[in-house]
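It would be a great kindness if you could assist me with a short task in structural biology. A protein sequence and the structure tokens that stand for its backbone fold form the material at issue. I should value your view on which stretches of the chain appear to form regular backbone elements. The record follows directly beneath this note.
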Amino acid sequence: SSGHRRTLAAMLKLHVRTYGDATRPSIALLHGLFGSSTNWGSVARQLAAQYFVLVPDLRNHGQSPHHPDSDYPAMVDDLLGLLDQHGLVDATLVGHSMGGKVAMQLALTHPQRVAGLAVVDMAPVRYTHNFAGVLAGFHAVDLTAIRSRADADAQMAEHVVGSGVRAFLLQNLVKRPAGWAWRLNLAALGAAQREITGFPAQPAGAQFAGPTSFIYGDQSDYVTPAYLPQIQRYFPDAVLCPVAQAGHWVYADQPQGFMTCLTALLAG
């Protein structure tokens, strides 16, 4: 089918960090928009004692290849390729934000490849949050004129409030022999804004019936009672695990609370 040809043509080989012993049960940690595999370092190290942990850079992020398609089916294809490359029948998926949507899409379309699912501060819905301001912040940085990260931070500050958010975004700034550059494919991510804030339409009756936990910050507005019917429709076994005093960056805000929720899912 044409769909299958697209998959083979568009599947990208992701840059991946691995931790732990490859003979153990596997877990894939998926970062959010504008993030990278480095975001998960401390979580990956904690899990490495008992699991084989794969932490990829998703397409158009980190050190992974760039491609004009940045939709969820394309990101799922890349992850299936990653599992195949490591000879893994299945893995537990842990996805934050955009990575949570990638994980949900993979679980709904290829449930046999997913041993368990942890969705971190995200629901299977379209959000009105838009990231135009963040993109404006990236574009405000004059890569030819800056001499330091501090220069970039000052230029970005007009558009992006919060030094912590800017520090996170500026992790994507790299100095190469030819000068400063963004590791992100900003053009593709900007063009895919509607796909990324949305969630793909699913065929009637699509479900992932395996163990599922929605881990969310009780001070964030990404998982609300309004989204419960949609969560239960797709994930009938879903457990909600709120983390006290955490915002959208659950695992950074409250690492212990996050690990308590994740461990409960893994102990199943």
Q: What stands out?
A: The mean pLDDT is 94. The first helix runs from residue 2 to 10.
